[in-house]
Amino acid sequence: MLRDALPEIKTLLPGPKAEAVLKRREEAVPGAIKSVYPCVISRGEGAMLEDLDGNRFLDWVGGVGVLNIGYSHPEIVEAVKEQSEKYFHGMMNIVTHEGYIELAEKMNEIVPLKSEKRKTMFANSGAEAIENAVKIAKSYTGRPNIIVFSGAFHGRTLLAVTMTAKKTYAFGIGPFPDGIYRAEFPYLYRKPVGLSDAAAVDYYMEKLQKVFEEASPAEFVAGIVVEPVQGEGGFVPAPMEWVKALRKICDEKGILLIADEVQTGFGRSGRMFVSNYWKDAGCAPDILASAKSIAGGLPLSAVTASAEIFDGVKGGIIGGTFGGNALACASALKVIEIMEREDLCSRSGEISDVCRSRFELWKDKFEEVGDVRGIGCMMGIEFVTDKQSKQPHTVLVRELVDYCVRHGLIVESAGAYSNVIRFLCPLVVTDAQLESGLAILESAIESCR
């Protein structure tokens, strides 16, 4: 079975069948939707995919965090099939469908928030979830402004791309929405020289205070939006002491703390959400946005907040045609059931232990491996020209991505300088597949450095 197979490359890439489809893509699809991988998927199972020419790849990207449950889980296929035979769609503004209610109840149970009484709404994508979280925060507080961070990625809609730090995603498409202000994220690997981690937390909180002083007074800020682990920003985790300080200042100033768990959620961190760790530390968010792995590959996203916050939102501000689609809700309910039953959060921890120990060995072995970081199975390896200068080694990472795919491993870069290899492997990867992927990546580093 493909789900138990190992990487195997049978042709030059792209193979002849894949090349024909890629030529059609070039003619039919905008070039701005880029792909650097010379393969065309034919089928996928578990953590493996097979292309049209029979080449088999281990996928360490998982649709950029969408496939924590893996490709084509048979129980999810059956759940979607069963729902499809009843009805595909029922818009919640017109008729109520029970799957939406059941999934909202489940999300209210599992999402860790400051408040214990919660409600959930559904949309279609991570960017939509973020947009709705912002609208909810503004409507509830009556305040106009939002604070985001350096290194942030929140999506490609006009508001979300304004909130996103990397301006490659926003080049030439302004003017942009007003009221978005940016503070510096605590990127501890690149903190000011001479500062301890503890001192760095104070340093970055002072940077946030400057935003209140020089951009938007706190009383005009509706929410602070933060990724518990920055995705596109280079898999940089938010230090817990900084999150505690952020929670404290939000409480003091009447600001809502919004966790963007679009990529970090659903078992990736070793808990269902990184905010589970936050709640244990006494700094749970007020609003949590999730998407990606929520429905095993079907378009779905969620915003969960306290009942008080949702009840303070004016009618007509939130909702949408496809939000909480019946097929997607059926898939999401089955995804959560499988994750809980098979304890994929613990499996995430096991995978993380194996990978982190290997990555740390590489850090000692290779001058180009500057930093290894992350939470659970959301890990990044930052490559530099040398450990002293920490100069980003973008060229090396580009070569690593190319080497890996041509040897059957799909990996992706991240970070402001695209010098980080991100690890987002499906949590259903087998031990043998994991070892195979580690061997390919280590060979890539040895060959390309």
Automatic annotation (TrEMBL):
Taxonomic source organism: Lacrimispora amygdalina
Descriptive protein name: 4-aminobutyrate--2-oxoglutarate transaminase
InterPro entries reported in the protein's UniProt record: Aminotrans_3 (IPR005814), Aminotrans_3_PPA_site (IPR049704), Class-III_PLP-dep_AT (IPR050103), PyrdxlP-dep_Trfase (IPR015424), PyrdxlP-dep_Trfase_major (IPR015421), PyrdxlP-dep_Trfase_small (IPR015422)
Pfam family, one: Aminotran_3
Residue stretches spanning the membrane: none
Family listed: Belongs to the class-III pyridoxal-phosphate-dependent aminotransferase family.
CDD domains assigned: OAT_like (cd00610)
Cofactor(s) the record lists: pyridoxal 5'-phosphate
Keywords: Pyridoxal phosphate
Gene: gabT
